Amino acid sequence: MSSLLKVIVGSKNPVKINAAKHIFTMYFPNNTIDCLGVNAPSNVPDQPIGEDETRIGAQNRVNYCKKHHQADYYVAMEGGAEQFSYGAATFAYVVIDNATEQVVGRSSNLPLPNILFKALLNGEELGDVMDKAFNTTNIKQKGGAIGLLTNNHATRESTYTQALTLAMAPFLHSDLYRK
């Protein structure tokens, strides 16, 4: 009989919950994974701008989950955007916490058209901007900007999945990371 592994995700967005469930199922194939999404405030703007604001949003979500829920792992993902020296891009920070240690990870960058980035600087959320540009509805709970801009060769979920996969390394080899 497999043991239960409880994972709390700091969002009700099915894309984020599915990414977390995929990772824990992959890393813990002998466990039953109970993955639950909860509303957790980021305490940053709805559309974070900059790496720090984005990372802090994910950490705030995880810390809220730890304070209000009991689980084996707590997970949060926060998407943000930034104007880098080479151009505008969107990315996500991921945070995984097991009540003993907290690991921060980051996704790769998706280049953003300047016209879309400017809309973000004017206070719009990327999902809404993408819905307008591509005539979609609620894309952030589907393939996201990543799906639209890559013609679905990558998706928001696949990007979160990769970032979470990498962020699990310190939990898998904790003795090495503690040295």
Automatic annotation (TrEMBL):
The lineage of its organism: Bacteria, Pseudomonadati, Pseudomonadota, Gammaproteobacteria, Alteromonadales. InterPro entries: ITPase-like_fam (IPR029001), Non_canon_purine_NTPase (IPR002786), NTPase/PRRC1 (IPR026533), YjjX_NTPase (IPR050299). Keywords: Hydrolase, Magnesium, Manganese, Metal-binding, Nucleotide metabolism, Nucleotide-binding. Its EC number is 3.6.1.73. This is Inosine/xanthosine triphosphatase. Pfam families: NTPase_I-T (PF01931). Homodimer. The gene is yjjX. Mg(2+) binds at Q70. Belongs to the YjjX NTPase family. The keyword Nucleotide-binding applies. The keyword Magnesium applies. It comes from the Bacteria. Its cofactor is Mg(2+); Mn(2+). NCBIfam families: inosine/xanthosine triphosphatase, PRK05074.1. It catalyses: XTP + H2O = XDP + phosphate + H(+); ITP + H2O = IDP + phosphate + H(+). It is an enzyme of class 3 (hydrolase). Phosphatase that hydrolyzes non-canonical purine nucleotides such as XTP and ITP to their respective diphosphate derivatives. Probably excludes non-canonical purines from DNA/RNA precursor pool, thus preventing their incorporation into DNA/RNA and avoiding chromosomal lesions. GO terms for molecular function: hydrolase activity. It comes from Pseudoalteromonas marina. Binds 1 divalent metal cation per subunit; can use either Mg(2+) or Mn(2+). Residues 10-172 form the Non-canonical purine NTP phosphatase/PRRC1 domain.
